[in-house]
Amino acid sequence: MTTADIESTDREPLEATTLSTQPEPPRLPGLGWAELARWAWRQLTSMRTALFLLFLLAVGAVPGSVFPQRGNNSGDVLTYLSQHPKLGPFLDRLGMFDVFGSAWFASVYLLLFVSLAGCVIPRSLVHARAMRAKPPAAPRNLARLPEHRTYVTEAAPQVVLDAARAALRGRRWRLAAGAGTVSAEKGYARETGNLVFHLALIVLLLGVALGSLFGTKGSVIVVDGAGFANTLTRFDAFTAGRAANTDDLPPFSFVMTKFRATYERGGPQDGAPRTFEADLLVRDTPTSPQRHVTIEVNKPLTIGGTKVFLIGHGYAPVVTVKDGQGRVVLNGPVVFLPRDSKFLSQGVIKAPDARPTQFGFRGLFLPTAQVDPVRGGISTYPAADSPGLLLTLFVGDLGEDNGVSQSVYQLDTTKMKQTGAKGMRIGDVWTLPGGVGSISFDGYKEFASFSVAHDPGKDPVFIAAMTALTGLMLSLFVRRRRIWVRATAAGDGRTLVAVGGLAKTEAGGLGREVDDMMDELRVAAPELQEPELQEPELPEESQ
Amino acid sequence: MSTQTFAQLSNGFVYGAMGVLALAMFAFAAELAFGTRSRVARTNEAALVEARQPVRVGGGDAPAEPAADGAADGVADGAAKGGDERQRRADRLGGIAASLTVLATLLLFLGVVCRGFAAKRAPWGNMYEFSTTSALVVLIVFISVARRRPALRYLGVFVVVPVLLTLGLALSVLYVPAGPLLPALKSYWLVIHVAAAIVSGGVFTVGGVVTALYLVQERWERKGIVNSMSRRLPTAEQLDQSAYRLFAFVFPLWTFAIVAGAIWAENAWGTYWSWDPKETWALVTWVVFAGYLHARATAGWKGRKASIVALVGLSCFIFNYFGVNIWFTGLHAYGGLPNK
Asked: Is residue B70 part of a domain?
């Protein structure tokens, strides 16, 4: 089948309806591969399909906001899975916990962008031709146009047309001359903007892809006084694009000399955070000198193409743990993760090297500890005004010897037994029941969590977004419109001037433009003030 | 003046604005009830006649057409000269309603400004402040739209009621005393990003009201139903045009709000886009309105279907504002709601 065949099948039903009331059985085009592909391509690039895909994208994004997502909150996903043992795995198979990385979401937006490209690229070619083409010739009867004006002057037709040309050129209209007419068109920027907007969206998507292929992002918790070096092993969590080179991260390092957090005191917003910032001593490379930098929430540290962000903070109680033989098996700060706005923090202390038996604690650190009759130990203020530590002791196998690495924030108590609990203040020592050892609560340190990100797609995405925005404004605010001026000699030395205007897009304002141009015309070709000629007969086309 | 005084003044102004708005609402409603042919109504009627009988200006024998406004005024003046007491009362009520709305807008403006002085920052740090500012934007958009198209003054009651509800919700549920910002919000991007979002919200709301009325009027016109309200409303086509202009204006602004948010996010969190619920719903809103703009240019979608798409978009916007702050946790945890 050729193209002509397809076109004839397109047309035939139309003729059939005009000849007979009997509906023709629909004739399908033959299903050759080429036709099928052509048909599929036409469907894909049609506006209807694009609309459908747009709405599908909108609907598809919704579960990403309803269910916890692995990328943002892997902990919440695990909680959800354990709370919904039946529904959870099913949703997981559908990709509901990683919507924006799932194959079906990707296929929707990829189809949308193919559809977009298939629509926009041919349109760009058409528009490029239209930009070079001349404005169309004047229609026969300008009075039929939505905007039309006439007047009579004694100036010669050529004078009028010259004046019209000058007036329109001064307003930067595109001009073409006809027999006794001037055609003018303006507002090509609308379609240009429209195309630029859509093309920029494609570039934006490519930039996003670039970032996800080559970008890296890691997070790390640094306790006050401790340091960090930008190598893969030092991160607590690290994600990298498939094509990213993770062996060759920029070799900077820093020591956090002081972390400060302040909170509102008193008043209705008691306890609301006010500032937090971290003082760092940074070395850009192992050999470069140290420099002082203070990072705040909206003020990241930039080293080359990598940025270091302060994204959170919390407390790390400092403890000394001795085992049953009196040896010190742990001495230092243990990071507890904040759980509420008053920094009630949860954590785990493990003593894997303890002899004769291993033991561990589940703990709550309360910066301003108080006992609530219902909820037990709570914190009433985020600053460490009167810190308390609530510990629950578990004795037995920590389950860490089988080689499976465990989270430092979780205690696997399947082979352990709870043997005691205690609330402690700084300086307290707890001699553990059963003679397994002891623990002392020596104090606390603050920690800060940092995000170290490198995204090579960022700048392309930014430029594409700005370009898209500019294109969008052009496409919505520029109006495409045409004006024609016709000057006809009436034969008695007078000239009839007719002006017509046609807006190609919604939104008005053309009338005023026509009026302004008329005013300018009247300067060069003054209007003849004769009452009987105010409504002159318009001669039919005079060519 | 102390910050405490400013905070009290701000609250006083907001309460005052609500009181005046409530009066305006009654006046608008009364104008509708009394004046079968108030000035607004007659303006619309004249425009309606004009719209329904497109004047064929072909040969020279057609009489010179006065401009649409002139015709409307002519009809209006003629009717007023008829001296019907009831009509004049309705006209006066409409004028009073419009003036009260302007007064309420001024009061609300003062309320927002005083709130800024009380908190010593741009007053856009929590949901109470977003809501009051959004209400202010809705009123400003309405007043400027009504100035340009007097026929749209009839929308008054439909605009004032949601504004009153928003303010009531703000004062009763969302209220937070004035105070400094959370550290995460301390950035000049707050002013840029949030201002763009608030203005977008105001224009979306007015656009939504106009669209909803379009759907009603379009139905009446299609079914040939003529009642006192259909006579007073602008024509379906005029409503559709006004709605389109509002949405076409606000779409780039909303795009800018999202882009500005992405720039801020990159600066604060290290990722320009993290698919947190607020971002996701902002994008959903954007996509739906992009769909609206495309639908208007697609045969078979123009008019009713496109308008429904716009209303879906507005619902997404409203859900993003209230629903996401209340039900979802994410990075945009700034609402300052008590039971978060």
From this structure: no
Q: Is the pTM of this model over 0.80?
A: no
Q: What is the dihedral of CA A240, A245, A248, A253, to 10 degrees?
A: -20
**Pick from B277, B281, B298: CB nearest A48:** B298
Q: Which residue has the tokens 């504002």?
A: B321
Question: Which residues are within 8 A (CB) of A171 and not within 5 positions of it... i.e. 6 or more apart?
Answer: A186, A513, A517
pLDDT of residue B158: 86
Size of interface A-B (CB pairs under 8 A): 140
In terms of C-beta distances under 8 Å and separation of at least 24 residues, what long-range contacts does A126-134 make, across chains too?
A127/A188, A127/A191, A127/A192, A127/A195, A130/A188, A130/A191, A131/A188, A131/A192, A134/A174, A134/A176, A134/A183
Q: CB distance from A237 to chain B under 8 Å?
A: no
For B279, name the nearest residue in chain A, comparing CA atoms only: A65
B102 and B219 within one domain: no
Closest chain A residue by Cα to residue B238: A507
Helix (H) or strand (E) holding A431: strand A429-431
Residue B275 shares a structural domain with residue B150: no
What's the token pair of residue B322?
């209230």
Which of these three, B134, B156, B180, is where a domain ends? Answer: B180
Residue B309 and residue B257 share a domain? yes
In-domain check, residue B104: yes
Query: Considering the domain boundaries, does residue B65 fall inside one?
Result: no
Question: Which residues in chain A are contacts of B186 at CB distance < 8 A?
Answer: 296-298
Q: CATH 3.30.310.80 residue ranges in chain A?
A: 135-186+480-524
Q: Is A266 on the interface with B (CB under 8 A)?
A: no
Q: Within chain B, how many helices (H) and strands (E) appear?
A: 13, 0
Q: Is residue B25 part of a domain?
A: yes
**Predicted confidence band of residue B289 (pLDDT cuts 50, 70, 90):** very high
Asked if the Cβ–Cβ distance from A458 to B186 is below 8 Å, we say no
- The verdict on a CB contact (< 8 Å) between A466 and B287 is no
CA distance A273 to A261: 8
Q: What total number of domains does chain B contain?
A: 2
Please give the average per-residue pLDDT across B84-106, as a whole number: 83
Specify whether B146 is located in the same domain as B273. Answer: no
| Whether residue B261 is found in the same domain as residue B157 | no
For the segment B122-147, the average pLDDT, to the nearest whole number, is 87
Most B CBs within 10 A among A45, A48, A53, A65, hence the mutation to make, goes to A65
Of residues B22 and B45, which shows the higher confidence score?
B22
A361/chain B closest Cα distance in angstroms: 29
Residues B162, B194, single domain; the answer is no
Q: How far is A451 from chain B (nearest CA, A)?
A: 7
pLDDT band, residue B211 (cuts 50/70/90): very high
The whole-number mean pLDDT for each consecutive block of 10 residues of chain A, a chain of 543 residues, reads 34 33 53 82 81 86 83 74 84 84 85 88 89 85 85 85 88 86 89 92 89 86 91 84 82 92 81 86 91 88 88 92 92 91 90 89 92 83 92 89 72 88 93 92 93 88 93 89 88 86 76 85 79 48 43
Q: Among B152, B180, B208, which residue terminates a domain? A: B180
Tell me, yes or no, if A140 comes closer than 8 A to chain B by beta carbon: no
Instruction: State whether A267 and B251 contact (CB < 8 Å).
Output: no
Closest residue, chain A, to B298 (C-alpha)? A47
Please report residues of B whose CB lies closer than 8 A to that of A144.
58
CATH code of the domain made up of A135-186+480-524: 3.30.310.80
- By residue range, what is the domain housing residue B250? 181-340
Contact A453 B271 (CB under 8 A): yes
Q: Do B64 and A297 touch (CB under 8 A)?
A: no
pLDDT at residue B230 greater than cutoff 80: no
CA distance A277 to B184: 11
